[in-house]
Amino acid sequence: MYVHSKHVFGMVFFLCAFLLSPTGMAGDWVAESEFRASDADSRSFLISLDRTIGERGLAFVSLGETWINGSEQDMDTRRQSVGGMLRLDDEWRLTGYYERWGRRGDIISDRVAFILARDFDQWGFSANAGARWITLEAGAPARRDRNGAEGPPINIPVNPGDPDDGEVIAEDYDTRAINLGLRLRYRPSEEWTFAAGFTHYDYDRDPTQLAARDQVERYSASAVTLAQGFLDRSVYLDARYDLGNYRDLSVYVSRDRSAVDGRDADSIILSYLQPLSAAWDLRLEVGRTQTDGFDASHSVGIGVTWYP
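C-alpha coordinates predicted for Outer membrane beta-barrel porin/alpha-amylase (308 residues):
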Protein backbone atom coordinates (compact mmCIF):
# COMPACT_ATOMS: atom_id res chain seq x y z
CA MET A 1 0.00 0.00 0.00
CA TYR A 2 1.42 3.36 -0.99
CA VAL A 3 -0.18 5.73 1.53
CA HIS A 4 -1.49 4.77 4.96
CA SER A 5 -5.11 5.68 5.68
CA LYS A 6 -4.14 7.69 8.78
CA HIS A 7 -2.37 10.15 6.47
CA VAL A 8 -5.61 10.65 4.55
CA PHE A 9 -7.66 11.36 7.66
CA GLY A 10 -4.89 13.64 8.90
CA MET A 11 -5.13 15.66 5.69
CA VAL A 12 -8.92 15.82 5.95
CA PHE A 13 -8.68 16.95 9.59
CA PHE A 14 -6.12 19.62 8.72
CA LEU A 15 -8.19 20.98 5.84
CA CYS A 16 -11.38 20.98 7.92
CA ALA A 17 -9.60 22.92 10.66
CA PHE A 18 -8.43 25.40 8.03
CA LEU A 19 -11.91 25.72 6.57
CA LEU A 20 -13.35 26.37 10.02
CA SER A 21 -10.82 29.08 10.82
CA PRO A 22 -12.30 32.61 11.14
CA THR A 23 -10.65 33.94 7.95
CA GLY A 24 -13.68 34.01 5.68
CA MET A 25 -16.92 35.91 5.49
CA ALA A 26 -20.56 34.94 5.23
CA GLY A 27 -21.36 33.61 1.78
CA ASP A 28 -17.93 32.00 1.36
CA TRP A 29 -19.29 28.50 1.92
CA VAL A 30 -20.98 25.95 -0.33
CA ALA A 31 -22.15 22.57 1.01
CA GLU A 32 -23.43 19.86 -1.30
CA SER A 33 -24.75 16.33 -0.90
CA GLU A 34 -25.99 13.83 -3.46
CA PHE A 35 -27.46 10.34 -3.47
CA ARG A 36 -27.67 7.93 -6.43
CA ALA A 37 -29.22 4.50 -6.83
CA SER A 38 -29.44 2.10 -9.77
CA ASP A 39 -31.34 -1.05 -10.67
CA ALA A 40 -27.94 -2.80 -10.78
CA ASP A 41 -28.21 -2.94 -6.95
CA SER A 42 -25.81 -0.10 -6.25
CA ARG A 43 -26.16 3.06 -4.17
CA SER A 44 -23.80 5.93 -3.52
CA PHE A 45 -23.69 8.97 -1.27
CA LEU A 46 -21.35 11.98 -1.46
CA ILE A 47 -21.01 15.08 0.68
CA SER A 48 -18.68 17.97 -0.15
CA LEU A 49 -17.74 21.32 1.35
CA ASP A 50 -16.19 24.27 -0.53
CA ARG A 51 -14.86 27.49 0.90
CA THR A 52 -13.60 30.62 -0.81
CA ILE A 53 -10.15 31.68 0.40
CA GLY A 54 -9.38 35.33 -0.24
CA GLU A 55 -10.25 36.78 -3.63
CA ARG A 56 -8.71 34.09 -5.84
CA GLY A 57 -8.63 30.84 -3.85
CA LEU A 58 -10.98 27.96 -3.12
CA ALA A 59 -10.49 24.93 -0.87
CA PHE A 60 -12.67 21.82 -0.88
CA VAL A 61 -13.08 18.48 0.85
CA SER A 62 -15.44 15.58 0.05
CA LEU A 63 -16.36 12.20 1.53
CA GLY A 64 -18.37 9.48 -0.19
CA GLU A 65 -19.35 5.84 -0.05
CA THR A 66 -20.76 3.33 -2.57
CA TRP A 67 -22.61 0.11 -1.76
CA ILE A 68 -22.98 -2.74 -4.27
CA ASN A 69 -25.19 -5.77 -3.68
CA GLY A 70 -23.66 -8.56 -5.77
CA SER A 71 -25.01 -12.01 -6.56
CA GLU A 72 -22.29 -13.66 -4.46
CA GLN A 73 -21.27 -10.90 -2.07
CA ASP A 74 -21.88 -7.32 -1.03
CA MET A 75 -19.20 -4.70 -1.60
CA ASP A 76 -18.63 -1.17 -0.43
CA THR A 77 -16.01 1.44 -1.30
CA ARG A 78 -15.09 4.74 0.31
CA ARG A 79 -13.75 7.92 -1.24
CA GLN A 80 -12.03 10.90 0.40
CA SER A 81 -10.57 13.90 -1.39
CA VAL A 82 -9.05 17.25 -0.50
CA GLY A 83 -7.88 20.01 -2.80
CA GLY A 84 -8.03 23.59 -3.89
CA MET A 85 -8.30 25.99 -6.81
CA LEU A 86 -6.30 29.17 -7.43
CA ARG A 87 -7.14 31.85 -9.98
CA LEU A 88 -3.79 32.86 -11.46
CA ASP A 89 -5.36 35.89 -13.19
CA ASP A 90 -8.68 36.80 -14.79
CA GLU A 91 -8.36 34.04 -17.39
CA TRP A 92 -6.20 31.24 -15.95
CA ARG A 93 -6.94 28.98 -12.99
CA LEU A 94 -5.15 25.97 -11.49
CA THR A 95 -6.84 23.16 -9.56
CA GLY A 96 -5.11 20.38 -7.65
CA TYR A 97 -6.42 17.59 -5.43
CA TYR A 98 -5.60 14.34 -3.68
CA GLU A 99 -8.07 11.44 -3.61
CA ARG A 100 -8.14 8.07 -1.90
CA TRP A 101 -10.61 5.41 -3.02
CA GLY A 102 -11.08 1.74 -2.26
CA ARG A 103 -12.12 -1.01 0.10
CA ARG A 104 -10.02 -1.98 3.10
CA GLY A 105 -8.30 -5.34 2.72
CA ASP A 106 -9.09 -5.56 -0.99
CA ILE A 107 -8.08 -2.62 -3.14
CA ILE A 108 -6.72 0.88 -2.51
CA SER A 109 -6.11 3.74 -4.93
CA ASP A 110 -4.30 7.02 -4.19
CA ARG A 111 -4.51 9.75 -6.80
CA VAL A 112 -2.96 13.19 -7.29
CA ALA A 113 -4.24 15.36 -10.15
CA PHE A 114 -3.90 18.90 -11.53
CA ILE A 115 -6.10 20.84 -13.94
CA LEU A 116 -4.99 24.00 -15.76
CA ALA A 117 -7.86 25.92 -17.36
CA ARG A 118 -8.31 29.12 -19.35
CA ASP A 119 -11.55 30.96 -20.15
CA PHE A 120 -12.27 33.16 -23.16
CA ASP A 121 -15.45 35.01 -24.11
CA GLN A 122 -17.12 32.07 -25.84
CA TRP A 123 -14.43 29.42 -25.61
CA GLY A 124 -12.59 27.71 -22.83
CA PHE A 125 -10.22 24.79 -22.48
CA SER A 126 -8.51 22.82 -19.75
CA ALA A 127 -5.71 20.25 -19.58
CA ASN A 128 -5.54 17.68 -16.83
CA ALA A 129 -2.72 15.42 -15.68
CA GLY A 130 -2.56 13.01 -12.80
CA ALA A 131 -0.96 9.95 -11.27
CA ARG A 132 -2.74 7.08 -9.53
CA TRP A 133 -1.11 4.44 -7.35
CA ILE A 134 -3.17 1.24 -7.11
CA THR A 135 -2.78 -1.75 -4.79
CA LEU A 136 -4.75 -5.01 -4.90
CA GLU A 137 -4.07 -6.62 -1.56
CA ALA A 138 -3.27 -10.33 -1.46
CA GLY A 139 -5.10 -12.69 0.84
CA ALA A 140 -8.08 -14.42 -0.78
CA PRO A 141 -7.06 -16.86 -3.55
CA ALA A 142 -9.50 -17.49 -6.38
CA ARG A 143 -11.06 -20.94 -6.45
CA ARG A 144 -14.37 -22.61 -7.22
CA ASP A 145 -17.27 -21.41 -5.13
CA ARG A 146 -19.39 -23.60 -2.86
CA ASN A 147 -21.45 -24.80 -5.81
CA GLY A 148 -18.39 -25.73 -7.86
CA ALA A 149 -18.82 -22.87 -10.34
CA GLU A 150 -15.84 -21.12 -11.87
CA GLY A 151 -14.79 -17.68 -10.76
CA PRO A 152 -13.28 -15.79 -7.82
CA PRO A 153 -14.59 -16.69 -4.35
CA ILE A 154 -16.50 -14.86 -1.73
CA ASN A 155 -13.97 -12.63 0.03
CA ILE A 156 -12.53 -14.75 2.87
CA PRO A 157 -9.12 -13.77 4.31
CA VAL A 158 -6.62 -16.61 4.10
CA ASN A 159 -2.98 -17.22 5.02
CA PRO A 160 -0.94 -15.83 2.11
CA GLY A 161 1.67 -18.59 2.48
CA ASP A 162 4.67 -19.59 4.55
CA PRO A 163 8.03 -19.55 2.77
CA ASP A 164 9.51 -21.93 5.38
CA ASP A 165 7.06 -24.59 4.17
CA GLY A 166 7.92 -23.99 0.53
CA GLU A 167 4.67 -22.12 -0.11
CA VAL A 168 4.45 -19.25 -2.59
CA ILE A 169 4.04 -15.92 -0.84
CA ALA A 170 0.97 -13.98 -2.04
CA GLU A 171 2.20 -10.52 -2.98
CA ASP A 172 0.17 -7.37 -3.38
CA TYR A 173 -0.42 -6.25 -6.95
CA ASP A 174 0.96 -2.69 -7.26
CA THR A 175 0.67 -0.53 -10.34
CA ARG A 176 0.82 3.16 -11.27
CA ALA A 177 -1.38 4.90 -13.81
CA ILE A 178 -0.66 8.23 -15.49
CA ASN A 179 -3.52 10.13 -17.11
CA LEU A 180 -3.55 13.04 -19.55
CA GLY A 181 -6.67 14.74 -20.84
CA LEU A 182 -8.16 17.76 -22.59
CA ARG A 183 -11.52 19.50 -22.35
CA LEU A 184 -13.03 22.11 -24.70
CA ARG A 185 -15.99 24.35 -23.91
CA TYR A 186 -18.06 26.46 -26.32
CA ARG A 187 -20.81 28.90 -25.40
CA PRO A 188 -22.51 30.21 -28.58
CA SER A 189 -25.26 32.06 -26.70
CA GLU A 190 -26.41 33.03 -23.24
CA GLU A 191 -28.53 29.90 -23.06
CA TRP A 192 -26.39 27.14 -24.58
CA THR A 193 -23.07 25.69 -23.37
CA PHE A 194 -21.34 22.69 -24.97
CA ALA A 195 -18.29 20.77 -23.79
CA ALA A 196 -16.26 17.77 -24.95
CA GLY A 197 -13.41 15.95 -23.25
CA PHE A 198 -11.00 13.05 -23.64
CA THR A 199 -8.68 11.34 -21.12
CA HIS A 200 -6.15 8.57 -21.73
CA TYR A 201 -4.59 6.36 -19.04
CA ASP A 202 -1.23 4.59 -19.16
CA TYR A 203 -0.21 1.85 -16.67
CA ASP A 204 3.29 0.68 -15.74
CA ARG A 205 1.97 -2.92 -15.59
CA ASP A 206 -0.32 -4.57 -18.10
CA PRO A 207 -3.80 -4.30 -16.48
CA THR A 208 -5.21 -7.03 -18.75
CA GLN A 209 -3.37 -9.49 -16.47
CA LEU A 210 -6.19 -8.98 -14.00
CA ALA A 211 -8.62 -10.51 -16.50
CA ALA A 212 -6.64 -13.79 -16.65
CA ARG A 213 -7.61 -16.33 -14.03
CA ASP A 214 -4.08 -17.56 -13.36
CA GLN A 215 -3.02 -13.99 -12.56
CA VAL A 216 -5.71 -13.25 -9.95
CA GLU A 217 -5.51 -16.38 -7.81
CA ARG A 218 -4.33 -14.49 -4.75
CA TYR A 219 -6.83 -11.62 -4.77
CA SER A 220 -10.38 -11.39 -3.48
CA ALA A 221 -13.41 -11.44 -5.74
CA SER A 222 -14.32 -7.92 -4.71
CA ALA A 223 -10.83 -6.57 -5.49
CA VAL A 224 -10.83 -8.14 -8.95
CA THR A 225 -14.39 -6.94 -9.61
CA LEU A 226 -13.66 -3.37 -8.54
CA ALA A 227 -10.48 -3.33 -10.66
CA GLN A 228 -12.67 -3.62 -13.77
CA GLY A 229 -13.41 0.07 -13.27
CA PHE A 230 -9.84 1.14 -14.06
CA LEU A 231 -10.01 2.93 -17.39
CA ASP A 232 -7.97 2.83 -20.58
CA ARG A 233 -9.65 5.94 -21.99
CA SER A 234 -12.73 8.06 -21.53
CA VAL A 235 -14.54 10.45 -23.87
CA TYR A 236 -17.61 12.58 -23.15
CA LEU A 237 -19.94 15.25 -24.52
CA ASP A 238 -21.95 17.66 -22.39
CA ALA A 239 -24.74 20.08 -23.40
CA ARG A 240 -26.39 22.51 -21.01
CA TYR A 241 -29.36 24.87 -21.57
CA ASP A 242 -30.06 27.80 -19.26
CA LEU A 243 -33.80 27.98 -18.63
CA GLY A 244 -33.55 31.30 -16.78
CA ASN A 245 -34.04 32.10 -13.10
CA TYR A 246 -30.97 29.95 -12.27
CA ARG A 247 -32.58 26.80 -13.68
CA ASP A 248 -30.85 24.60 -16.22
CA LEU A 249 -31.27 21.34 -18.11
CA SER A 250 -28.25 19.28 -19.17
CA VAL A 251 -27.41 16.03 -20.92
CA TYR A 252 -24.11 14.18 -20.46
CA VAL A 253 -22.99 11.38 -22.80
CA SER A 254 -19.83 9.33 -22.23
CA ARG A 255 -17.96 6.21 -23.33
CA ASP A 256 -15.46 4.59 -20.94
CA ARG A 257 -13.21 1.68 -21.89
CA SER A 258 -11.95 -0.68 -19.19
CA ALA A 259 -8.18 -1.16 -19.12
CA VAL A 260 -8.69 -4.67 -17.69
CA ASP A 261 -11.16 -6.40 -20.04
CA GLY A 262 -11.50 -3.82 -22.85
CA ARG A 263 -15.28 -3.52 -22.47
CA ASP A 264 -16.93 -0.22 -23.39
CA ALA A 265 -19.51 1.36 -21.10
CA ASP A 266 -21.82 3.93 -22.76
CA SER A 267 -23.69 6.27 -20.40
CA ILE A 268 -26.21 9.06 -20.76
CA ILE A 269 -27.36 11.26 -17.87
CA LEU A 270 -30.12 13.85 -17.98
CA SER A 271 -30.22 16.35 -15.11
CA TYR A 272 -32.33 19.32 -14.06
CA LEU A 273 -31.38 22.12 -11.64
CA GLN A 274 -34.12 23.94 -9.73
CA PRO A 275 -33.44 26.63 -7.11
CA LEU A 276 -35.61 26.21 -4.04
CA SER A 277 -34.67 29.52 -2.43
CA ALA A 278 -31.82 31.99 -2.30
CA ALA A 279 -29.87 29.49 -0.16
CA TRP A 280 -30.90 26.09 -1.57
CA ASP A 281 -30.68 24.35 -4.96
CA LEU A 282 -32.11 20.97 -5.95
CA ARG A 283 -30.74 18.79 -8.76
CA LEU A 284 -32.53 15.73 -10.15
CA GLU A 285 -31.04 13.25 -12.61
CA VAL A 286 -31.82 10.04 -14.46
CA GLY A 287 -29.30 7.92 -16.30
CA ARG A 288 -28.70 4.78 -18.34
CA THR A 289 -25.49 2.75 -18.76
CA GLN A 290 -24.88 -0.02 -21.30
CA THR A 291 -21.73 -2.13 -20.84
CA ASP A 292 -20.62 -4.63 -23.48
CA GLY A 293 -21.86 -8.10 -22.58
CA PHE A 294 -24.23 -6.93 -19.84
CA ASP A 295 -27.82 -5.74 -19.57
CA ALA A 296 -28.37 -1.99 -19.41
CA SER A 297 -28.68 -0.42 -15.97
CA HIS A 298 -30.74 2.63 -15.03
CA SER A 299 -30.12 5.13 -12.25
CA VAL A 300 -31.73 8.06 -10.47
CA GLY A 301 -30.08 10.73 -8.38
CA ILE A 302 -30.90 13.68 -6.18
CA GLY A 303 -28.57 16.43 -5.02
CA VAL A 304 -28.97 19.37 -2.66
CA THR A 305 -26.71 22.43 -2.52
CA TRP A 306 -26.69 24.90 0.38
CA TYR A 307 -25.27 28.43 0.23
CA PRO A 308 -25.15 29.54 3.91
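The domain at 5-19+29-232 is CATH 2.40.160 (Porin).
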